Amino acid sequence: MYATSKNTMPQRSLASQMCVICLHLTQRFLTLRFLFGLFTGIFFTIIIYHRNESVVDKQPHFRADQSKFEYEKNQLLPDDVSVKTSAGWNSSWDGLKRETSALRHLYLIRHGQYFDNAQSLSEMKLTILGREQLKYTGIRLNQMNIQFNRLIHSGMVRALESATIINEQLDQKLTLIQDANLTEGLPVAPVPYAGISQRDVDSYGDKARIDAAFATYFHRARHNQPRETHDILVFHANLLRYFICKVMQFPTQAWLRMTLNHGSITQITILSDGSIIMKSMGDSGFIPANKVTF
Ligand SMILES: *[C@@H]1O[C@H](CO)[C@@H](O)[C@H](O)[C@H]1NC(C)=O
Ligand SMILES: *[C@@H]1O[C@H](CO)[C@@H](O)[C@H](O)[C@H]1NC(C)=O
């Protein structure tokens, strides 16, 4: 039709020429409308298909029990929480009130592996592996890029050595502070019974001294502390586990149910209202697996 119209156009009247043009434009319009409709249809089909797919797909991403939990969380009315089973929290556990907004960060380090079968206390030094473990601990603490305030150790040889190795790794050197109240001991007889009776505790325990050490370091910021503090404490697993129970307000007799690896870091932050955040417990992920001991 195109070809004939081209050839015959000069002989036709203006009206018939206009008709041909109109017909031509109408055809084009219809073609365009058809294509537009087709693509719109395809477009919306794809969108709806994808939307259905994402709704259907979402379910398997949840763990089976997680979606159940999400459901139950929505169903749970505040009154359903049993007062009997919910744990209490003594917000004035340190005998203080909120005096400032500053935080207190504690980095509790267990000393490295040591000669625990040596004859005397002074011979209970770190083993070669123990020294290596504490080097990793020092490197990790340095990598945290924190300006630490204090580096405190118990004064027992293995804790002093451990603190010294940590300090060697820190870019900002600290003065070592000794606190004999952090010396290893037995705070309370563990439950369940594990070979340590209350009689052992009474003779070797020093609970009063250990509680004094706790009170020295575990408290919210006092009014004379304007900025947050970061203290490293290098000491011993019995005290450390007892302190964890005590600060978390767990039964302290549970301390022996936990173990802490040599050179591990337990990170606790005390907020200004006395709340506790335990950021890690016995973290030793920075020590190669073949060098981890407890
Ligand atoms: C909270 O702890 C403090 C300090 O140990 C204690 O004096 C106080 O009686 C405790 N309060 C309660 C309600 O147990
Ligand atoms: C160590 O503990 C005793 C109580 O056993 C206490 O009188 C003393 O002040 C404590 N020392 C330090 C440095 O906190």
TrEMBL record:
What are the entry keywords? Hydrolase, Membrane, Transmembrane, Transmembrane helix
Query: Membrane spanning segments where?
Result: 30-49
Keyword match Transferase = no
Q: What class of enzyme is it?
A: hydrolase
Q: Which Pfam families match?
A: His_Phos_1
Record's protein name: Serine/threonine-protein phosphatase PGAM5, mitochondrial
Q: Which InterPro entries match?
A: His_Pase_superF_clade-1, His_PPase_superfam, Mito_Ser/Thr_phosphatase
Statement: the UniProt record of this protein carries the keyword Plastid: no
Cite the Gene3D superfamilies for this sequence: Phosphoglycerate mutase-like
* Family in the record: Belongs to the phosphoglycerate mutase family. BPG-dependent PGAM subfamily.
Entry-linked SUPFAM superfamilies: Phosphoglycerate mutase-like (SSF53254)
GO molecular function (one): protein serine/threonine phosphatase activity
GO biological process: one example: positive regulation of mitochondrial fission
Q: Which Enzyme Commission number(s) are listed?
A: 3.1.3.16
